[in-house]
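Researcher: Dear colleague, please comment on this protein.
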Amino acid sequence: MSDIKKVVLAYSGGLDTSIILKWLIDVYDCEVVAYAADLGQGEELDPIEQKGLDTGASQVIIDDLKEEFVENYVFPAFRAGAIYESQYLLGTSLARPIIALGQVRAARATGADAVSHGATGKGNDQVRFELGYQALAPELKIIAPWREWDLNSREALVAYAKKHGIPIPVTKEKPYSSDRNLLHISFEGGILEDPWAAPPQDMFVLSVSPADAPDQAQEITLEFDKGDAVAIDHEKLSPAALLARLNELGGKHGIGRVDLVENRYVGMKSRGVYETPGGTILRQAHLAIESLCLDREVLRIRDNLLPHYSELIYYGYWFSPEMELLQSMMDKAQEPVCGQVRLSLYKGNVTVLGRQSPNSLYRPDIATFEADTVYDQADATGFIRLNGLRLRIRHALEQAKKVNVNY
């Protein structure tokens, strides 16, 4: 007999978590609260409550976290310029810590003594969820069904679902899994496990193919304050509303599709396909405004730390002391990053047309190729000779070695 009385399950209504809900009830003989964090999944959440109750949940919680997600997770990461392995804008990675936080809140509100998730024993999400639980509520027990049961394949899960009358969304026509939030939608598994196979065009949800995008470019203006986007075309928007609008604009123009093979934290490579239309626009605009406002050495230090910062998010260390330290530094660096960026959206591309800022460090009177009274070009002679000193010394040493060999 299990000593666990009530579990809060991170519930999506998909194949895995639907089966896990039933499995927890049967194996642990406990009450299960199905917890769904609304991070911008849209119509996917419509059947969640009834489906959870029909599958046996004692309660279904649908928690609207869209604004909190964008303001406290997406925007901080974008202020820092987070990107994993040069391509991935961390849409799934950023969603897991806020879901873990929501589960902990729900566990405390409902008196639950355990939490559970649907992440497999091969993936990154198990680490992200469980590091979050341990950082926020180490007293809660953690149940990871994929590491306990013998349902070790998608086929076995489908068979279990049919046996227990659980409706499933995965079909032979769409044999892959997906995960959606306001920042992106990801696709993996099934037919995508062959890295040589192109993803089917009917798989994509948030964007049209660049080939089918409008033949006319669209120009927009993004306004930033302390590193955060705050307005589109001079219209002030909340964080979630702004990202949603950028998703619409980017999706319309075929922007933000990424197909990559990435290195999971657990040590294996996996192929994922992502749609991040709004995030792609936001990143390009942020880089453009930073180019005006950030001091060279501040930018260099930030960029040197960026791979580690991005790995912390990808690996699941959002609620860690090292993350707090890095985030405070990133936010301090972003204080002068204010102004506007003009962009052109056209057939999968985001092109910067212009940028301006009241904190701009760019000085036309210094950078000009025309005559000026600020910069004495003759000063460059000494500057170059000092920086070339080590090169001349190295050359002299190499020449001396050649002479000695001749003797």
